[in-house]
Amino acid sequence: MTQEKPDRDAVARGDGNDIPDHAVERPRRPSFFSKGSAMGRVRVGLSTTFEWVNVLGVSMIFLMMILITLDVSLRFLFRAPIMGSVEIVQFMLVIAVFFGLAHTQRAGENIRMTLLVDSLPVRLQAAIDAVTGLVTTGLCVAIAYAFYYHISGRYGRVLTTDLLEVPLWPFKALAMAGVVLLVVQLVFELIENLAIAATGRSAEQ
Q: Is the model's pLDDT at 67 over the cut of 90?
């Protein structure tokens, strides 16, 4: 005997009252607000920003690969490595990591253990996600503030690398910007999860 799959479209419209909550999959990407609303347009604009920022981060990985290849080749063939290549790669790594945070969170690609949570009702899942999202948001705000505090400190703008003497504060500012974008994404997800936990429907409905 085959079991009939629940009509998720009916559940989204609110007329699937006979379908248990645990039979409905959560959307992979939160809908936040309707596309026609002001917040919906903000969401679309932020999603585009996340994607382009992520493209910059990915491009840093490509440039890192080229730089390391050139450095090793010049060192082996001509005994003339690129001066400061290690420091340059470290700067690129900062951009590659922090510029991909918001896009990765929006795409739902962070590693999660959902074996137990997926078996819970949708509203309880959303409540758990709201709690963890609130904690994560608080931690990310603290990290962003730590970057700001260090940059704006007395010695924050005079610290440089040892070899190339490149100032560190611009790259810390870029890292802070990446964390701030992640906080924005987490806040939108928090609003969505609170709406689902309270009413059983997303903020769009």
A: yes
